[in-house]
Structures are given as structure tokens and as C-alpha cells.
């Protein structure tokens, strides 16, 4: 039987934006020493808008051509970057070409064939790994997520996108601090954005350009260092890390896989509700003992 005090707290938790799928996770929430946060869609809104389109050389004729090629690929992706690029395609009134042989480069971008040409839309990390130099004018600004467009493996240009930090994120992290809990950022995005977001939110540290399987390894590493680690994320790529963490917390606006894997779901996608989780956990189990 469920102790009455726990049943009541579960109802209260629902009022505070928490879906408790796993009672042990709820019970253990009072032990959390660090919360690891995914960036995109978790601390930020996950709604990218194209801020700049830059051509490098003469591989394509103009910005519209670059956006059109990227859009042809992104029509096959559900990544928030894809949604941002496709809304730019609509704004510019472009007609999309058809992309064949679509292939996701997990955590690095996507590739496909468009009119017999190989096209890739990829991360700064992919360029580095393939010995391609970042263009001089890339000068990635603090808040920009940048993807590079390659045509037959030649750099044609890049697209800088901006995403907004959720208004509740700073408060969530400050309140965790007041309760002696550390916060760490774990993202597949570039170094500059990761550093900028973690500084703006006064977080305790960040890991950038982390591939999906490396997210899980980072959680293991933090667990080996000691402490009780919660992981918060929304993406398909966060699911293994959510499963590995001592407590997995999914953001409801994200993927179904993240929500299925996690013990707790933030129903209103508000990172501040993690604080409710920890305080409720403490209050509930204090009453029982
Ligand atoms: P995050 O931790 O922010 O969810 P991901 O692992 O999903 O990051 O992606 C990491 C990086 O891989 C992105 O910042 C981007 O550079 C690249 N990437 C992933 N998917 C796409 C896509 N559909 N189009 C372009 N770039 C992508
Ligand atoms: Mg995410």
C-alpha cells in the first residue's frame, strides 16, 4: 500500500509541474548533489532562429541557395536546428529541392544527395575532425549555434542560429545553489555557446561538443567522482544519460524517448520545477521518518 503521506505528495507534485513515474526516483531526489543539464530545449527554449547566413567563397551563388540546400536536408530531420532552418526557408519563400540518401550524422549533423551532389550540414566539431579549417569570418559569437554547409565536401558557407534561454533557468540554478546543489551543462553544441550559457546562468561547469554516447560517459565519470547525480534532458540523444544518472528527469516538451526513460517528467517544461522536486522529496520523507 502507498503510505498516505506519499500519495498526497504525489498529487501535490502534479500541481507543481512534476509527473513522478518512478517512486524510488522521487524518494531519492533529496540525495541529489549535482544536476547535469542538457542545453537545447532544457535550459533554452529549443526554438532556433536564423541570425546570419555567411557564404565562404563562390561555391554557391547566394544566401538563398545555401539556405535552400540546407533546408532540403533538414526537411528530413526533427532536430530543433532543422526547424529553425525550415522556418527561414518559408520566410524567404524558397522552394525546396529533393534530397535523397539522407543520413543522420549523430550529434554532428546530416548529409544527403541533392541533384547528384553531396551536401552536408555539420557542426564545428565535424569540420575539425575532418581536417577542414574554420573560415576566418566564422568568428562564432557567444550565443550562436553555427552549422556549416558542405557541397561535395567543399565549404560553401555557414548558418548561425540563436536560441533563447528559458526565463526560469537562472532562478532554477540559483535556487539549487542555495540548497547546496551544483549544476553542470552538458551539450552537443559548440564551446562558445556552452561557455556563454553556463556563465550567464552562473553554473558550476560545462562540457561542450559532447556526442550522444559521450553524454552517458560523462555521467559515469561524475558518478565515479562521488555524489548523487540527476540528469535533465529532452532529446533522443539524452536518453542513455538519463538512464545512467541516479535520477533521470525529462522535459515534457522534448522527445517521447526521453520521457519514457526518465523517472520524473517536468510537465510544464520548467527547469524551476526541479527545485520543487527536491524540496517535496525532502518534506515528504522527513514526515515519514
Ligand atoms: P544538443 O546537446 O544541443 O541537443 P545534438 O547532439 O543534438 O546537441 O547536436 C550537436 C550538434 O550537431 C549541433 O549543435 C549541430 O552542430 C549538429 N547537428 C545535429 N543535428 C543536426 C541537424 N539536423 N542539422 C544540422 N546540424 C545538426
Ligand atoms: Mg536538448
Q: Give the biggest beta sheet.
A: 7 strands, mixed
Are any ligands bound, and if so which? adenosine-5'-diphosphate, magnesium ion
Number of strands: 13
- Count up the helices: 12
- Structural class call reads alpha/beta
How much helix is in the residues?
Answer: 25-40%
| Broad shape | elongated
What's the CATH class label of the largest domain? Alpha Beta
Domain module tally: 2
Strands of the widest sheet, in order across it, are 1-13-12-11-2-9-10
Low-confidence stretches: none
* Whole-angstrom Rg: 21 Å
Instruction: Report the mean per-residue pLDDT as an integer.
Output: 92
CATH topology tier name of the largest domain: Rossmann fold
Question: Short description, anyone?
Answer:
This protein is of the alpha/beta class and 289 residues long. Helix content is 39%, strand content 25%. The protein has 2 domains: 165 residues, 3-Layer(aba) Sandwich (Rossmann fold); 114 residues, Calcium-transporting ATPase, cytoplasmic domain N, CATH 3.40.1110.10.
Secondary-structure blueprint:
Blueprint: H1 4-15, E1 18-20, H2 23-28, E2 34-38, H3 39-43, E3 49-55, H4 63-74, H5 80-91, E4 99-105, E5 109-114, E6 117-122, H6 124-129, E7 144-151, E8 154-162, H7 169-178, E9 182-186, H8 191-200, E10 205-207, H9 212-224, E11 229-233, H10 239-244, E12 247-251, H11 256-261, E13 264-266, H12 273-288
Helix pairs in contact: 1-12, 4-5
Bound molecules: adenosine-5'-diphosphate and magnesium ion (MG).
Adenosine-5'-diphosphate is lined by residues 38-40, 74, 77, 79, 81-82, 107-110, 121, 123, 145, 147, 187-189, 212, 235, 237.
Amino acid at each position: 500500500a502507498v503510505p498516505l503521506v506519499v500519495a498526497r505528495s504525489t498529487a501535490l507534485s502534479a500541481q507543481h509541474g512534476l509527473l513522478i513515474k518512478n517512486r524510488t526516483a522521487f524518494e531519492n531526489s533529496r540525495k541529489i548533489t549535482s544536476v547535469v543539464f542538457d542545453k537545447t530545449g532544457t535550459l533554452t527554449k529549443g526554438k532556433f532562429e536564423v541570425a546570419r547566413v555567411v557564404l565562404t567563397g563562390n561555391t554557391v551563388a547566394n544566401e538563398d541557395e545555401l539556405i535552400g540546400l540546407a533546408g532540403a536536408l533538414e526537411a528530413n530531420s526533427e532536430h530543433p536546428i532543422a526547424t529553425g532552418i525550415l522556418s527561414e526557408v518559408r520566410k524567404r519563400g524558397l522552394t525546396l529541392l529533393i534530397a535523397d540518401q539522407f543520413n543522420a550524422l549523430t550529434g554532428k549533423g546530416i548529409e544527403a544527395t541533392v541533384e547528384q551532389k553531396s551536401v552536408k550540414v555539420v557542426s564545428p566539431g565535424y569540420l575539425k575532425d575532418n581536417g577542414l579549417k574554420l573560415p576566418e569570418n566564422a568568428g562564432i559569437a557567444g550565443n550562436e549555434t553555427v552549422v556549416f554547409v558542405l557541397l561535395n565536401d567543399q565549404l560553401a558557407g555557414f548558418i548561425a542560429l540563436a536560441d533563447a534561454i528559458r526565463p526560469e533557468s537562472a532562478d532554477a540554478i540559483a535556487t539549487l545553489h542555495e540548497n547546496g546543489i551544483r549544476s553542470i551543462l552538458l551539450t552537443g553544441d559548440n564551446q562558445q555557446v556552452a561557455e556563454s550559457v553556463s556563465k550567464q546562468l552562473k553554473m558550476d561547469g560545462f562540457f561542450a561538443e559532447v556526442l550522444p554516447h559521450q553524454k552517458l560517459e560523462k555521467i559515469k565519470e561524475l558518478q565515479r567522482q562521488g555524489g548523487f547525480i540527476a540528469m535533465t534532458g529532452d532529446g533522443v540523444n539524452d536518453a542513455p544519460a538519463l538512464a545512467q544518472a541516479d535520477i533521470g528527469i525529462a522535459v515534457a516538451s522534448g522527445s517521447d524517448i526521453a520521457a519514457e526513460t526518465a523517472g520524473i517528467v517536468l510537465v510544464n517544461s520548467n527547469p524551476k520545477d526541479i527545485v520543487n522536486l527536491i524540496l517535496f522529496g525532502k518534506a515528504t520523507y522527513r514526515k515519514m521518518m
